[in-house]
Each structure stands twice: as structure tokens, then as C-alpha cells.
């Protein structure tokens, strides 16, 4: 490991910070020694209709049961909207910046209240009730946030599906959640190109119907005005519906443990899992992490560039910032449209103070050249953040020195869909920064490193990252499959939550996430199960077998490398390669596009028939000098063929 420069907390950061190093130490100690008292106090940061008397009731053993604030009653939309009306009704809640730089708008908290109430009344009018699952398949427009908040207002459980997913992927999620109400738009708009959301929805609904889930209504927001198909009686225009409902809707009193949302995420096996989050603990954790990690102060303009289709969009575009009464910027576009200066232009235009993005975007913009950054002022910036994947020190330094001009702390935030909120991250006034390290755990988070046998590693060590006790934002179950929840997260190392990530702890107690240790790859900060891509490939009539691994990619972090064996009689060709790429995109979505396809007559297997992925990974990395032990292979000659046909020759 090469030496990295430590950046000390600068006096200006410390001066304005809500948490300094001493407070961090004190609070952290209290949070792990007496979680009841600590969270009992901090749970009060949100408003409760009925205060909780029980704080924590959790076990990671046996059936695994996680309950926080279990007898409290609250409502998420009330906390994100209504409670701010008195003090900041006229403050901007959402700044929307369109794909087109001339397209923007501002929505105050009072206007947000109006939109959310009307939206909620539309849902109610069409029979959506507490506990029902509502699928949201939307572009990044304010109506996506209204839809989310409207669901929480009436106690419906939203399941957002990223707009880049295919009809098949959307259908799978509709079916798994047994969701009969879908909210979408005519088309999305990104980087000047349209995305046929309504058309995809129509196709997904047909697929879902074949799986016995009948969607009753589709609520369609008009975004582009493009032509769409229409099913009378089923499809509803949002603008027609909202015009005829009242602008008042009382928030439902929700139990802290009532389901809030489902969000599907990829794992190492099988279909994506429905990660279920509940109401009270999630909101307390999202709100508290948003405030302290970004050192958020009243009046700050805050921008997270994620999409609401991912957990980062849930927690740090919508729920965290709005529960804190922040002004949150929602961006419809992409980093390089119309030019690679877009992010920095938006920062100047809206005087953004806190900016949170992904390493993949930083690397891409770094590659485009400093001149695109330097023509902007960026003087409003105060805090920079990253999320989604490990950040290489080179990208970190560029972000810190060029974008932030050495003035702004970079908070490298490690967390997961499952954790609900940020788990390991610097707090700007409390931690010295080391480029590439997520530094130290947030309050209440107890990381532990274990070796493959489960032995606990102390001090400086490299191992598998577990969390040993619950925190309020933790997922509660896999929707509809609690057994899978236990199996996936609590059985590898019994009684501990296993993250699936590898991690090093240095001599200062700093954590360095090294990446997934399971069969999940991280492409541009998005999780992709290799098994999902494999199953998409083998669903093509020409493919008999496929094995998918990740390999290091300069911009995306990891690329998708596929080894494909064809059916007898099929002949490898460039056309077939293109067809297979297109097929995977159709099956899953563009984010799963294979970067490399290697046709291989056979795959390396053990005598018991297990594919040896370790070898495939090495070949994909063009690092076959160190293949390790190949003596257990059924046919060692397979490897020579794989090496000579490799697609990543350096
Ligand atoms: C929030 C989010 C989770 C996986 C996680 C890890 C990787 C996220 C990271 C990071 C290194 C960071 N990851 N943040 N790795 N440093 N700061 O991204 O959730 O989509 O569920 O992905 O992403 O591998 O396990 P999700």
C-alpha cells in the first residue's frame, strides 16, 4: 500500500462543524455502550404523534428480529413536509434542474405540501390503501418525490424501479411485490435522449399479467408530451386527476415498524431481493446521518446527484434532506450533457453548498480535463461527498484539489441499500481525511473484521466486514422471504450482519473498503449480481452456459466480463456478440451491458462441476501469471484456450 497523505481537519471546517472530534468520541462511546439511551434521545429529532417508550428490541440470532421505537406513531411525509410549514413554508424545498439547462423550477415547502396532499388523494381515490405496494417507475422530476411522499402519507409502501431497467426487470419487481398500482411518466429525458417509460410499463404489465399479477391502474405524469399507448379504464393522466381532488389530506398515523418502502437490490445468487425498510428507525437514521455527515446547517443548498431509483436517492435526495427542512436539488440529467461542465455550472447557478456524487462520475469528469471545472467559480461549495464504490486516491485528490480547491472536506461514505443510511464516513469537523478511506463508523455502528473462518481480527487487519449490533436504519427483512434475509446476511458469520464487502483497518482504526467479496460486481456504483447477467445470457437460444465476472475498469470501477459457451452447431461471430449484448440490455437494462464477451468452448470446472471463478477473474484481469492452484480442474487444458482468447490483453 503506497503512503497516502493525511489531510488534517482544517480550522474552518472545525469552526462551523456540528460535531468536533471530542464530541464524536463521546457520542460514539455512548452510542455503543448505551444504545437505548443514545437513540432514545436522538429518536426525538423527528416528530411523533405518540412518543415511543421502547427504543431498541433487536436480535441477530435465531429468527433475527429488528425493531426500533416499536410503540411510537409517526408519519414520514408529515416529518418531511408539514412540520416545516410554520417556520419555512416559503423556503424552497426542491430545486429541480432539468436535463435541458434552460429548464428548472423551485418548489417551496408550502407548494410541496399541496402537491403531496393532492397526489395522496389521487391514490386514495383509486383505492390505494395503507400497506398496498405502489410501484414507481419515474424520471428525475419533482413528481417522483411527490409520489414517494404521497405513498408515505397514506401508509402505502413504495417500490421504486430505476428508469433504466427493462420491462422484464420492472415486471419481476411488480410481481414480487404484488403491486397493482404503477406510477410512471410518458417518457424520461436524459442527456437529450428520451426513455420510453410508459411503453416499458405497458410491456411490463403484460408480462406481470402472465405471472398472475394484474395491474389495476397506471398513473402517468406528462413529461415530454411524446405519444403513448393508452388503456382506457386502466391508465390515468396525473394532470387530470390532481385537478379534481382536495389539497388537504391528513397524514396516516403509522407505527414505527410499519413498512415504508421496498427497494430491490442484487445479491450474489438468485433474483434481486426486495429490501424492506420501515418507518421510524429509517427516518431517524436518514435524517441524523444527513445532518452530521454533510454538516448540514439551516439554509444550506444541498445536491445529491443520484437517481431516486437507488437507495442514495431515497435517503439523501428525499427523506434525509426533507426531514431536516433542507433545500434539496434534484437533477434530471447526466454529468456530461450538454458538456462536461454541467455539474459545475449547476453548482454556480444554484449556489450549491454541499455536493454528493459517485466516484465513477468523478473519474469520468477528471478524464474530460480540468478546463471544464476551472471555468466555473464553485465558491459556494463547502462539503463534497462520494458514495457507491471505493474511490481511488487519484480521483479523491482531484476532487479535493481541483473541484474543491483544497477548501472542502471530502466525505467518502460507505453504506448499502440494506443499511438505509451512511455507516462509515468522515464527519467534516471530527476526522482527519485519508484519500480512499471511509474513515470511521457513524454513531451506533459497530464494524468488525473477521477472517474466512469467522475469527475476529483485532487492530490493523484485512478481512470481511461485519456489523455486530443493529442500528435504526437497518433493513428489517427481505420482502416476503424472511428466511432469505437470515440466510443472506446472518448465516455466513452466525449472529453478525455480513455486508458482503472486504475491508482493511489501519493502525489508526480507519476503515478502507476493498470491494465485494461475493459474486456481486459494482459497475459505475450500481450493484449487479453476476448470476443475473448469467441467467440473462443463458436465456438466449444460442447460449448453453455462461460465467460472468468483474474486471477493473478505469471509469466504471468494474466492467462486466462474460465467458459464453454456445450450443452445439452455433458459431461465434461479431454479430452474435452484439446480439448477446443487446439481449442482456433487453433482459435487465443498460446498466447490465456486457463490456466483454469471450466465446469459450468450455469453462474451467472442478471435478464436481463447479465453475472456478477465481481463474476466470484472473484471466479477465489479464493477470494469468498467478492463476494459483489449477490442479483441481477437471480439464486443465481449458485454461490455455481461455488465456489465448482473452479479451483484455494489456
Ligand atoms: C449506497 C449504495 C452497496 C455496495 C457496498 C460496497 C459499495 C458503497 C462505498 C462502497 C467503497 C464506499 N460501496 N459505498 N465501497 N466505498 N464509500 O451504494 O448502496 O447500491 O446497495 O451498494 O456499494 O460494495 O456493499 P448499494
From TrEMBL:
Which residue intervals define the domain AMP-binding enzyme C-terminal in the entry?
532-610
Q: Which residues form the Acetyl-coenzyme A synthetase N-terminal domain?
A: 24-80
Q: InterPro entries attached here?
A: Ac_CoA_lig, ACAS_N, AMP-bd_C, AMP-bd_C_sf, AMP-binding_CS, AMP-dep_synth/lig_dom, ANL_N_sf
PTM description: Acetylated. Deacetylation by the SIR2-homolog deacetylase activates the enzyme.
Keyword Transit peptide listed: no
The residues the record assigns to binding Mg(2+) are 538, 540, 543
Query: Which residues of the sequence carry a binding annotation for ATP?
Result: 388-390, 412-417, 501, 516, 527
What biological-process GO terms show up in the record? acetyl-CoA biosynthetic process from acetate
Query: Which cofactor is recorded for it?
Result: Mg(2+)
Q: Where is the AMP-dependent synthetase/ligase domain?
A: 82-467
Q: Which reaction does it catalyse?
A: acetate + ATP + CoA = acetyl-CoA + AMP + diphosphate
- Which Gene Ontology cellular-component terms appear in the entry? cytosol
Residues in the signal sequence:
none
Q: Which residues form a coiled coil?
A: none
Residues that bind CoA? 190-193, 312, 336, 524, 585
Class in the EC hierarchy, top level: ligase
- Asked whether the keyword Ligase is assigned, the reply is yes
Q: What is its EC number?
A: 6.2.1.1
GO terms, molecular function = acetate-CoA ligase activity; AMP binding; ATP binding; metal ion binding
Q: Which residues carry this modification: N6-acetyllysine?
A: 610
Alphabetized, the UniProt keywords read: Acetylation, ATP-binding, Ligase, Magnesium, Metal-binding, Nucleotide-binding
Recorded family membership: Belongs to the ATP-dependent AMP-binding enzyme family.
What this chain does, per the entry, is described as: Catalyzes the conversion of acetate into acetyl-CoA (AcCoA), an essential intermediate at the junction of anabolic and catabolic pathways. AcsA undergoes a two-step reaction. In the first half reaction, AcsA combines acetate with ATP to form acetyl-adenylate (AcAMP) intermediate. In the second half reaction, it can then transfer the acetyl group from AcAMP to the sulfhydryl group of CoA, forming the product AcCoA.
Instruction: Tell me the protein's name.
Output: Acetyl-coenzyme A synthetase
The species is: Pseudaminobacter soli (ex Zhang et al. 2022)
